[in-house]
Amino acid sequence: MFKNVCCIGAGFVGGPTMAVFADKCPNLNITVVDLNHERINLWNSENLDRLPIFEPGLKDLIKRTRGKNLFFSTEIIEPIKSADMIFISVNTPIKSSGIGAGEASDLRWVESSARTIAKFSQGHTIVIEKSTLPVRTAKVIKEILHSNQNTSENKNKLKSFSILSNPEFLAEGTALDDLENPDRVLIGGEDEESINQLKDLYLNWVPNEKIITSNLWSSELSKLTANAFLAQRISSINSITAVCEATGGDIREVSKAVGLDSRIGNKFLNSGPGFGGSCFKKDILNLVYLCKFFNLPEVANYWDQVVKINKWQKDRIYKKIVEKLFGNLSDKRIAILGFAFKANTNDTRESPAIEISKDLLNEGAKLVFYDPKVSKNQIIKDLSKTIEMITQKNKDEFLFFADNVYDAVKDVDAIVLITEWEEFKNLDWIKISNLMIPPSWVFDTRDVVDPSRISGSSVNLWKLGNADFN
Ligand code: NAD
Ligand code: UDX
To answer: How far is residue 420's CA from residue 438's CA, in Å, rounded to a whole number?
Structure first.
């Protein structure tokens, strides 16, 4: 049967997810709507290099689907009216003020989406939570949808809703592969028929045994828990980097030995400058808030520690840089290689590069940035948010930008490698050392520098979690 689908939110999740749905389900007619005109214009741009997000394979996918059965629009009412299924895929950041500030999710965008659906939907609509949400948000959405049915405007219109939770587990940089070959698809709900309709959609490409169903609250909680577990592994391995440095260990060897235990597994055991991205920190803090709300302080403290270690790791790296550069960064130039929170994305949300750069700037350093996918404007925007001294006027005195690694490292005292971009793995270290000011340092936080390739040069190498390079 031909179905109209609407997705509210054309972001990192809504855009790629709906593009994969459109590709795999030719009988769907999908409209992704967003309030942000600029974002929608970029999704609609002729030049596919201008899509609002970078994901490997996305350009080809958009070329195949856009204008056929996938549409991007700022016109929200009509797609909602005609939709059989509506995905809510809007942002759910942490509240910045009021009750629960710094921990609880800010649900204003979810609530406004629910209100819009309540007002304009027609007939029976399946409403699907795609955003990551606090447990029991489905109840809030349900109340908003049903309360609207009794308004004078809607009284005589036949409207009904089913609410499902279908959290998204994609990771940025591998989003299309994750969507096309998911480890599992989780559908939470109460209404069997609606669950089956959503399941039928996924069955176009996902094997039946990978589609699991649960009640609404388990589904909402599973998403928060999955992210908390993944982040916990990173904080665990990062905590051991410091122990390696102190004792003579090498984190790569420890990580390999630990990960070969099939009960533990080898994924998410790469040490680094701390996890970034829009999800981990906010989802754990949200879990912490829920635990406090339900009077479970021991559980709250347990998960809070994962976030604390993550901050500690960034702090530790910045302090190490200051220590190696004789305790003084005043007027020193430092190249920051990589600004995205991980490789293969242009996303900088919660990137460790932001915090580390901020601390280095506060010590008086001048920073030269190079990232193959992150724009100069994005870096300025991210740093302006955290550092008051950055104004349009004076930023040129301490922020510099380069188009490639070799331009970035000219006349710098140190290099800090923060994102594990492939191109950083094969650099000409002899050439680089000749461009730097001696005694020069390279701080490798991502294990991208092969020490044998740097050994003939004059630079000093510090490697995270490796006592031989400390
Ligand atoms: P995003 O900020 O990139 O996109 C959200 C979009 O929703 C924005 O473009 C915003 O303008 C739009 N929006 C907000 N309110 C709206 C409204 N009322 N009507 C129309 N448009 C509206 O966010 P994202 O990264 O795509 O994340 C969306 C959700 O998915 C979040 O809950 C997030 O936690 C979750 N999630 C994200 C990822 C990820 O890797 N980014 C992975 C899994 C889950
Ligand atoms: C994460 C989850 O993986 C995904 O399932 C969820 O839907 C959204 O949140 P994402 O944040 O896009 O995805 O990327 P992810 O690959 O998980 O990396 C998050 C951060 O952890 C990055 O900063 C990355 O560099 C870091 N990381 C990851 C490590 O430091 N070590 C690792 O071994 C893995």
So the answer is: 25
